[in-house]
Predict the structure.
Amino acid sequence: MGKDFTDACRIFFATDIESDGAAYYAIFGKHINGGFIALPREGISAEQTLNGNRAYNVGKLTEAGMSERTAADIVEYCANWIARNKPDTSNQLAALFESR
């Protein structure tokens, strides 16, 4: 049987994010190789960094077909969420934010 990677995967939040008068349902979390965001109603998913590289994250969403303005709004929301919720590195929950 293969290795179980479920302990390295987490969903941080699933919520509507408003941008330019529309609401985008976003699922944001991490997988074995880093972060991800999925916008199922738009049929878009993209790799995301969890280290604050907003240009990279916006680029990945625009490559997937999202407008740059909407991508920037969504990335900003995610970055703010991380800033508010990332535990101190001495905290045992810090592992949730680390890529393995």
